[in-house]
Amino acid sequence: MTQTRVAIETRDGTCPSYVYRPSEQGPWPAVLVYMDGIGIRPAMLELGERLATHGYFVLLPDLYYRSGSYQPMNARTVFADPAERKVLTEKFMSLATPDNIMSDSAAFLDHLAAEPDVRPGGVGTTGYCMGGRMSFIAAGTYPERIVAAAAYHPSRLATDAPDSPHLLAPRIKARVYVAGATDDASFPAEMQRRLDDALTAAGVDHVVETYPARHGWVFRDTPAYDAAAAERHWRTLLALLDSTRPHA
According to the model, what pLDDT value does residue 248 have? Predict the structure, then answer.
């Protein structure tokens, strides 16, 4: 597996991104990873590395590039400390809106399409927390390009807002997997049922299920990390990607 950094030009600037290539001979199917709200840091990069070892070309963009360069955030304190949380929400999250990230996603998908090491046949996506929401929205925004979309401990996927992500269900052609947490006020059981109903009504091949965990269980540097749930995440993610994997 090799890691390289690339600069992807978007409508609003230059997005630094990480590319992971398997050690075997390519081309490989592509996966676009939407980071969580804590941003790029060692634990996030490790996910890209591990995914590449399973035979996927991985693109991991820094969705906070509009806010300028930054040091890795402390995942154990960034939400608990009021000052750190204020910086995160006002400086970083405020610019990582769905509209902005979907505009960026066009550039990410174009980059993958132009990459000779990427196998044609559609892209898989996965996302976490904030990125889980983006992964789902991307499936509805680019239905002809995304064949699989996973969302782990996402938030606000089915609300009363006129732009709620679940309203995109009729546009989605990808196979969808969504995993919520039992302890997560941003994606409670009622919202999960609403999402499941919308996907069922739209005829989307999907699974929506709940892990006995706290919001943010995937990454080892968070207070919510749960080793068993994190490994379950890997099993379900790889099963989803493998089931839609384009073949040479």
Answer: 63
Collapse the DSSP code of 59 into the 3-class scheme (helix H, G, I; strand E, B; otherwise coil) and give the result.
strand
pLDDT digits (tens, 9 = 90+) for 66-101: 999 999 999 999 988 999 999 999 999 999 999 999
**The pair of three-digit structure tokens given for residue 137, joined into one six-digit string:** 């929205």
- Within 8 A by CB and 6+ apart from 68, the residues are none
> Cβ contacts of residue 185 below 8 Å, gap of 6+?
215
CATH T-level topology, domain 2-243: Rossmann fold (3.40.50)
CA distances from 165 to 20, 147, 227 (A): 29, 17, 29
Residue type, 93: M
CB 42 within 8 A of CB 135: no
Give one DSSP letter per residue of 152-173, joined into a string: ES---SS-SSTT-GGGGGGG--
Q: What is the mean pLDDT of residues 5-33?
A: 96
pLDDT band at 33 (very low <50, low <70, confident <90, very high): very high
> Which residues are CB-contacts of 222 (< 8 A; sequence separation ≥ 6)?
38, 43, 75, 76, 216
Beta bridge partners of 4: 19
Instruction: Please list, in sequence order, all residues whose beta carbon lies within 8 angstroms of the beta carbon of residue 12, skipping any fewer than 6 positions away.
Output: 66, 100, 103, 104
- CA–CA gap between residue 39 and residue 145 (Å, rounded): 25
Listed by start position, the domains of the chain span: 2-243
Torsion angle in degrees (nearest 10) through CA of 15, 180, 158, 207 = 100
